[in-house]
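Bug: token stream looks shifted between consecutive jobs. Job 1:
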Amino acid sequence: MFQVFKKLDWFFKHYWKRYIFAIIALMCASALGLIPPKLVGFAIDQIQYETLTKKLLLILVVGYLLLAFIHYTISFLWDYTLFSGAAILERWTRSRLMGHFLNMSPTFFGKYRTGDLMARSTNDLKAISLTAGFGVLTLVDSSMFMLMIVGVMGFTISWKLTVAALIPLPVMAVVMSKYGAAIHARFMKAQTAFGDMNNSVLESIRGVRVIRAFVQEKQDEQRFDDMTRDVYDKNIEVVKIDALFEPTMKILVGLSYTVGLGYGAMLVFENAITLGDLVTFNVYLGMLIWPMFAVGELINILQRGNASLDRVNEVLDYEADVKNAKSPKLVEELSSIDFNEVNFQYPASNIKQLQGFNLHVNKGETIGIVGKTGAGKTTLFKLMLRQFPGIEGSVSYDGVEMERIDIAQLRGWIGYVPQDQIMFSKTIRENIQFGKPDASDQEIYRVMELAHFLDDIKQLPNGLDTQVGESGVTLSGGQKQRVALARAFIKKPEILILDDAMSAVDGKTEAKIIQHLRRERINKTTFIAAHRMSAVMHADQIIVLNEGQILERGTHSELIAQNGWYKAQYDMQQLDEGEVKS
């Protein structure tokens, strides 16, 4: 049960001063809280023996008020110190998770779904934070505070009465242990179900237009209803155990009260203790209610926190598939890129996506890559970005193997426009500035001209300040592609990768973008993957990929002369364009 504190020792070691102060302050506040019942018992005895004077009463009242003020001040200090520490832990862990996500490769995101990762980053972190705050409080109260009360009861009133009143405690320890094990198992299942539901909601929101187009609203509602029912049922299983804590505590506390009152009254009749001592003893028994409840709360919180911490640590312990070399080599100037007998297959695949791939690219060249769907074009680009491990052969930049180059430097060279453009839920200006955070409006308008987006921006209601909505929902496919192009252009990368990045624009717009590219990308390397041959006709080298192998290579005129796949595809597209024009 206490393993969760050991797992968090890295945090407690770093903030040990904060927690030592909070615990000492908490214990001081608890100790001060033990004085008022003694004052009450003393006052009752003085009343019984008719020795209470006005002066003594005034001293008691003033002392009580002073104790209350000191108790309040110390309680504020431990409360603030302890729970702000829990907030720091939550912030740290959330930052570690975010940094971890950013370092992960696509393999990781294939294993863990977005909704589940969100559940671990929200609900589970709250449970961990509760452990570091309220969990420490209940630990101190259920141990030190309880021992302090028991000690005062035993030393200042009667050990016999104290031992008799605490007989139910061992029973409570056994019962709470059983409850704790059940809470841990059921809470793990509930959190997993919540992660599944989260993922389902994300998929439904992202695919809402597809759901409507296929008239699947009712089915999706039913699927979501089934999942919420499953989450509800699993949480109810947790609540059923949780609900047993309080009545169990009340029964045990009731037994303690019964013993305390019955046996205490006998001791008063026997003059073993005074009436004031009996009243004080029962006040202390009342004060024991919270520490006894705290035992149950402690088990509950620690088991939830332990389960959540295991889920978070499972993600944090996942090692990055792609790591920096221990001593990365700095590449001063990027003059060439070489692929030498490159073979690659995805971890979950049984077939090779690239086989025996060889290519030499000089600085400033434009490389066109064409081929059927699934030929390996996108895979090639992902390897250039070093998104996957397990590459056979070598990919070298300026003669230095990719694995020896710092990942940040490598990706800093590259401007990447993928097939599926990612738009952030911000303004168009902010989406473009993602490529260069300090870019001025003048620079933004310049790259929008290159991406042939100036006419569109004039038609949008707020120009550059137009919100694009979730994943760019307010923009058309062609507009999203051109904003993504502008974002890559503004970076002025050494290597520009366009992965079918103009598939949603018309031929005239594509021709203008290509024209701008040829003018602006002089002495810089460009890779263009496309299904339309018109997008790569100007390239210095054109590669035809088929099942991960280079089927044909050469310039446009050379490939036409080869009379192979490229020429057949080019002729077909020319014929289609002629039919459209006619």
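Job 2, same session, no restart:
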Amino acid sequence: MRMAQEGRNIDEQVVVGEQKGSVEWAILKRTRQLNTTASEEVLKLAEDLETWEKDDKTKLIVTQSAGDDVQMFYDGQFSSLNDIYTMYWLCYHIHTYKKTQVAIVDGICNFGSASLMFAMKFSVVTEKIDFATLEASLGFHTDCGFSYIHSRLPGHLGEFLALTGTRLNGKELVAVGMATHFVPSAKLVDLVARLWSLDSGDMDVVRSTIEEFSEKVELDKDSILNKLSIIDKCCSKESVKQIIQEFEAEGSKEGNEWVTPIMGFLKQSSPTGLKINLRSIREGRKQTLAECLKKEFRVSVNILRGTISNDAYEGARALTIDKDNRPGWNPATLDEVDDEKINLVFLPLEDDIIELRIPETEDNRLNGKELVAVGMATHFVPLDKVWALMPRLARLDSGDTDVVRSTIEEFSEKVDLDEDSILNKQSIIDACFSKESVKQIIQAFEAEGSKEGNEWITPILKRLKESSPTALKINLRSIREARNQTLGDCLKKEFRITVNIMRSTISIDAFEGVRALTIAKDNCPRWNPATLDEVDDEKIKLVFKPLEDDLELRIPETEENRWEGKAETSGFASVRG
């Protein structure tokens, strides 16, 4: 597949890497175009980040400056698929990176590159930064994780930014949580020097270092963030058309002159792009990071294929190539955009092999090789061989175990664990989890995490400390009891625990977790009890006791003569008690 950058001077697109001690420094530099992230830069940064993550000597990664290259979509037409795939993989990698990263942004930062910078653990911005999501004006969509980022902003600010292309300055980015620190440009030289001198990737050390140079954020009087009540009122409407009508009504009121340029942007943007953006941001509220990226990749591919419109190419032509600022959108109006056709860009790709492949979860995940190594899966088959295996299995006229096994083994590969696999840390894991209580396990991990080369423990401790203390104690007991239980015993016990948890026998943490992580999505669960010391071990026993109303799980003690009864006859219908 031809790269979209073919014919350009590759020397203009570079990632300048520099290393000092345990600090790696990546400068995304572009000499003749505005701070852009083009294909060579994306690939080089992806390779470097993977290398640094596996290097025990590297403790801190600092990335400076970035941008995006809209023209690569226009030049390469659909041939830029490889670039897009790499960009999405890189976005996910940065969001879930195991080591401490600092992004320093001191200029214009738009499009996909902004997601690379704001996804890092620390994002330092200055008074010179100029950020906006302008994709709707190009007939494109807020991609590279921004349906995840924007959907988690206060109120309906995410929809507003995606639809109107409104710019945010450094102070505003910190105020809404997209950046972590505001440092005046004049202090960057000193900050850089201090970061260079660090020999630590410890989050607290890096944070305190940045805070030496950062300033408290106070919004300007005319900041757009002071208009959130109006923004929420307008952008909460169901459709783009209704949002525009509401802004028109607000703009007619005295003192609301700030609405005029917003209306201009909305009316000049691609009608198709506006509808796609609104749907994507709103779907993002109910999606994980991985789900958002998979959806966005799918939408990007369908847009660049011209599945329902060629507006993305027309926008790039009019605004960045010919610069006549006269895009000929097709359809030309919101009323002409068929909502059923909008559905098409969100559908799974027919050639499933090019769907984005990233993990479903972000924490302590096991990859395919690791699942086979621990016996949770039987065979490891590389993705490019799966598509040959599937028709072979479909053609089998046998359910014989040996026949099926031998067929799969033709395509499977021997498993060799990666050097940084969590399974290579088994001795430390065993030492920590052999402790009697959850509290002792956490203390053991804290001791191990303070040792050089054990940075992999940081996210584990974070997860332990953020989890429900009650749930941690229940899980530890349940897993340890299971060692002496049959499958039937385990399932009966787990059913009993589930019913007691859903009945809030000792705590409402299950409902609070759902509220904080999937409904309100404030990621601030209020556990009760709030600490391990406050959790009464005697109360933990209550969720393991037989149910008073004999609502026990009825399963056979052996696999033969399985019970064929219906769930409702066992009393299951009364689970809500």
